[in-house]
């Protein structure tokens, strides 16, 4: 998660940098860097999302094995 925060900070800095540039080559280079950073954030977020879904599935399976069902007092934890 901290890697994503750092990358988002880098993207914001690059965005602020684009406001002061006027050369098209420089703007294209920064735009390319921003796009690649956004793709990297997206890939990392998908990995984190996948891990969370795996944990959710494991939790549901463990509750079934333990005999807890929806609505039982133990389920509210």
TrEMBL record:
It holds the Pfam family Syntaxin. One of its GO terms (cellular component) is membrane. It comes from the Eukaryota. Residues 1-74 form the Syntaxin N-terminal domain. This is Syntaxin N-terminal domain-containing protein. It comes from Papaver atlanticum.
């Amino acid at each position: 998660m901290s890697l994503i925060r750092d990358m988002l900070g880098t993207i914001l800095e690059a965005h602020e940098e684009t406001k002061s540039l006027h050369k098209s080559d420089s703007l294209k280079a920064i735009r390319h860097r921003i796009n690649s950073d956004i793709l990297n954030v997206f890939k990392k977020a998908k990995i984190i999302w996948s891990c969370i879904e795996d944990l959710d599935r494991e939790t549901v399976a463990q509750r079934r094995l333990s005999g807890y069902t929806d609505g039982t007092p133990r389920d509210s934890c």
